[in-house]
Amino acid sequence: MSYEFFIAKRYFRSKRRSGFISLINYLSIAGVMIGVAALIIVLSVMNGFENEVRSRIIGFDAHLRVRGLLYRPIPNNTDMVTYLKSMDKVAGVSPYVFNKAFLSHSSYQDGILIKGVDEKSIEEVSDIKKNIIYGSMDLGDVHVEEGDTLPGIVVGKSLALKLDIGLHDKVFAFSLANLKPSFGLIPTPFVKAFRVTGYFETGLYDFDDTFVYISLESAQKLFKMGEQITGYEVKLKDLNNANAVKKDIENKWGYHYIAETWFERNKNLFSWMQIEKWAAFIILSLIIMVAAFNIISTLIMVVMEKKKDIGVLKTMGANSLSIQRIFILQGVISGVIGAVLGSIIGYLLCWSQLKYKWFSLPSDIYFINSLPIQMRFLDFVLIVIAAILLCFAATLFPARKASKLDPVEAIRYE
Fold first, then answer.
1. 53-106, pLDDT tens digit by residue?
2. Distance from the first to the final alpha carbon of the chain
3. What gap in Å lies between CA 114 and CA 333, rounded to an integer?
């Protein structure tokens, strides 16, 4: 242990002639503690929400999509499927058809996004079957009493409520794909009837209000694609490998095929979440900065109180750099204590929310029933380092002032 640290520790623990100085010191430690705890809690909550949104989006969609250039249809190529499934990082592959259409039921109509999927392989890439809340995901031919045999369709819960669609109702999908006007006449859209077999609910309104699922064969007929498809959905063993797999696919199959990652399809949403986290980090750091100003005040008053000690140390051979280190260490000790206590408090509060769900959310408004928490070790490390650095910066001015004291002037009247 260096003598600078020994003296700094003695100064930190010693009783002040003025109790006000000790009070300010304790307030500065409390300020750092509260700031660190607040940062940990807020970032953990934001991580929780981000994780919930990401898991629901990725559960509804695939980690990767392989499609044709400019969204042109591509052949259902068995060589492509074999290649994708042979990749070590790939867990599942499923072909799909995706296009816009118009859905009509009774006197209600709305624009929708239709996704044609292969029932045999859809579970390899999507959790959509787990999100069925009424009925079942039966996309084959469905027969009901006193009704026609029609292909099945699964609709989002919000869309079903908006169009007043019930289970086993007949709905009509209108497609304008591949229609060209002739002799100035408006082309007639292709219409196909479906039987509603189920509702799904992801908890994300944009999906539940817009998407419907039909079989791959029905989608090919509706959009007049023949045997072609829009592309392949790919699920990875680790979603963080999406960019690496994307590069491998594009290098292998050339520019005619485009691979889209889950992040690229939702770039605006996740980028905004990241900006919000940094904004929260910066704003809540102001609490620690207030505590840092208290540290400045404390050290300035300690310097004034310890003039004699500084003079004695200098006459005994201590140089200006050593004096500066003593007061820097004293301020950093306050920062370290506050940061450690804040980390412990933040961890305990986050853990208790995970364990006991103190803060619940109305399930009829939000897609989760309690405040989500996800603690990350890196967040703890960065917050503690930031707190200590702010406290260190706060010590520089008073420590520099202490190091410049003239020892003769400091002990002249003592």
1. 888 888 888 899 999 988 889 998 888 899 999 999 999 999 999 999 999 998
2. 30
3. 61
Classified as helix, coil or strand, 208 is helix
Between β-strands 211-215 and 108-117, what pairing exists: parallel, antiparallel or unpaired?
parallel
Instruction: Provide the pLDDT for residue 343.
Output: 96
1: β partners? none
**What does pLDDT average to over the chain?**
85
**Collapsing DSSP states into helix, strand and coil, what is residue 191?**
strand
Of 228-232, 312-316, 360-364, the range with the highest mean pLDDT is 228-232
Q: In angstroms, rounded to a whole number, what is the distance separating the alpha carbons of residues 43 and 54?
A: 16
Helices (H) and strands (E) in the chain, counts: 13, 13
C-alpha of 117 from chain center: 28
pLDDT digits (tens, 9 = 90+) for 335-357: 899 999 999 999 999 999 998 88
pLDDT of residue 363: 60
Nearest 5 degrees, angle CA 126-CA 130-CA 131?
A: 95
The β-bridge partners of 233 are 65, 94
Write down the pLDDT at residue 33: 93
**Per-domain residue ranges of the chain:** 3-57+270-411, 97-223
Query: CA geometry: angle at 368 spanning 346 and 383, to 5°?
Result: 25
* Cβ-based neighbours of 269, under 8 Å, separated by 6 or more: 53
Cα–Cα distance for residue pair 324/299, rounded to 1 Å = 11
What are the tokens at 69? 């250039």
CA 280, 392, 13, 306 torsion-angle sign: negative
**11 alpha carbon, distance to own chain's centre:** 44
Distance CA 267, CA 172 (A): 33
Hey, CA dihedral for 151, 155, 159, 164, is it positive or negative? Answer: positive
In order of 196, 237, 288, 393, the CA distances from 247 in angstroms are 39, 16, 43, 44
pLDDT digits (tens, 9 = 90+) for 164-179: 999 989 999 998 776 6
Tell me the two tokens of residue 23: 């009070």
Residues 6+ apart with CB under 8 A from 208: 156, 157, 158, 159, 200, 201, 202
Cα–Cα distance, 377 to 374 (Å, whole number): 10
Neighbours of 131 (CB within 10 A): 22
CA 31 to the chain's CA centroid: 28
196 neighbors 167 (Cβ within 8 angstroms): yes
Q: What is the pTM of this model?
A: 0.77
At 220, the pLDDT band (50, 70, 90 cuts) reads very high
Which residue type, as a one-letter code, is found at position 153? I
